[in-house]
Amino acid sequence: MASLCKAFLLLILCSSFNQFFFVTSIEFEVGGDDGWVVPKSRNDQMYNLWASKNRFNVDDTVNFKYKKDSVLVVTEEEYEKCHSVHPIFFSNNGGTVFKFDQPGLFYFISGVAGHCERGQKMIIKVLEPETPPQSANDNTTTTDSSQKSGAVEMAAIYSPIISMLFMVSFFGALFI
Q1: Nearest-CA neighbor of 71 among 58, 56, 61?
Q2: Membrane-spanning regions, if any (predicted)?
Q3: pTM beyond cutoff 0.70
Q4: pLDDT at position 129, please?
């Protein structure tokens, strides 16, 4: 009987570990170690080149780190003009995290005069979901285990950790 309980416990623990690798979103660090800064040379495409090397999905986030600057999400026209009176989004707190809530193109510029013209701007394309949205009655999930350069994986681990701790405590008490 004890060996059957141990086998059952092992099966439950092993099946719980797969939830640790389920990636729900990715956080991208804009500009890497340098952060959101004016390019050293007049390189209008520095941030667009970085963005083109990554794949952005709905619910992913971009993390802007900067000093004495700002981040604006603007329209395509405002992006081309490097100016916005009424941006879609504005932040100047030095550590802005922006979450993509839908697929499509997102236009980012610096709000400091002259920075956008010197290349501190970026277009990010957020991809359409690979599968149709899940209905409220559908409890199945899909996983995306692909690695993305310059990204930090954000795993959905709270529920599996609590479940595993409960199981280990419960079954551990049976064997003591």
Answers
A1: 61
A2: 155-175
A3: no
A4: 85
